[in-house]
User: Fold this.
Amino acid sequence: MADDEGSKARCVNCREEVLVPDQYSHGDHIACGTCGTKHKVARGERVRLVVADPGPLRDALAQNEHAIRRIEADLAQARASFGIGANGFGIGVAFAIYQVGFKGEPLGLNLLLNAVGIALVSGMLLEAANWAFLAKRQRIARLSEELAEAEAEARQLRMKIRDATRL
Assistant:
């Protein structure tokens, strides 16, 4: 067929050009010759193709939204976790045992406050090191990237579903 016998539109799935003959009117179904996706013809200022059956797209969107919720929960957990910073508690206890056992310091409020201070400072330093250099930062970066990709895919799926339901 020549170009004057029809118009070309891009397939929603594979983005290949599909020749839409002039005999196809608004709302008629046509399949992509490359990927086989069924489309509806949308005639307006120009010819467009939209997905004929948005059911599988809705299923994909539901799975995508479930994945987004899971990634957001993992990301919140990664940001809130103490990681190796909880080991500061062990360092504080070890300091108190050392002071009492080897130096002979009496148990008291001063020793308790020193041990708590050392536990807090060492825990914060360990957590800062974990954030700056170790796995926590890498995990947060990876989860943030996955979340951005999943949200972009969800936007595309919503746009395809919206276009398919307009006809």
Q: What stands out?
A: The beta strands are 6-10, 17-21, 29-31, 38-43, 47-51.
